Amino acid sequence: MKTVTGLFDSYDDARSAVKALENAGVSSDNISIVYRKDGKEEVEGQGNKAAEGAGTGAGLGAVAGGAGGLLTGLGIMAIPGVGPVVAAGWLAATAAGALAGAVVGGAAGGIVGGLIESGVPEEDAHLYAEGVRRGGAVVAAKVDDDKVVESQAILSSSRAVDLDVRRRAYTEDGWTRFDENADPYTEEQVAAERNRYHL
């Protein structure tokens, strides 16, 4: 199996990508989503106050999806350097230490490390984590070799960010790599970042 990934500027685009992958036959167990949640939006029944407990290291909850698909398994967690995220799937479980039964905390390296371990180049893994920090979403799916091209096309058609363009924009601002010790973006900074990309 290989991992296909996409960075999205909005939860709606990421959600569309997840649903399209599921509709194309990719198992929910093989798909992950991690999204930087702000306190104002509602995400798949999580409610608009879902992030309240995230700053205290709230548990992830169910991460494996189920009969209703991956998005029914969304949970809240806090990631150092990112803040509250809504997450589900194998990448979220890796970040939270849920597979080992660990308590949430120190999970930022888990997202970068989980992506690298699944075959994503390190420089891209850092870009995905930074994209989430700035208010975006990452979708990652493990697919059979013969589904790679189709799955990557699904992500692209769901408005995935052009990584080269985004990397240039970040590096022009002095960014070099994701820093889990950095302060999470405030809601105002996330709003400014989304405005920068006309969202």
Mean pLDDT: 77
Q: Report the β-strand fraction as a percent range.
A: 15-25%
How far apart the termini lie comes to 34 Å
How many distinct beta strands? 5
What's the number of helices? 7
Topology pattern, helix = H, strand = E: EHEEEHHHEHHH
Order of adjacent strands in the largest pleated sheet: 1-5-2-4-3
Give the total of domains: 1
- The value of Rg in angstroms is 15 Å
Instruction: Report low-confidence residues grouped into runs of 5 or more.
Output: 45-68, 98-108
**Quaternary state, please?**
single chain
Helix content: 25-40%
For the sheet with most strands, the description reads: 5 strands, antiparallel
Shape designation: globular
Q: Which structural class fits the helix and strand makeup? A: alpha+beta
Which helices and strands occur, and which strands form pairs?
Layout: E1 2-8, H1 11-23, E2 31-36, E3 75-79, E4 83-88, H2 90-96, H3 108-117, H4 122-133, E5 137-143, H5 148-157, H6 163-172, H7 187-196
Antiparallel strand pairs: 1-5, 2-4, 2-5, 3-4
Helix pairs in contact: 1-5, 2-3, 3-4
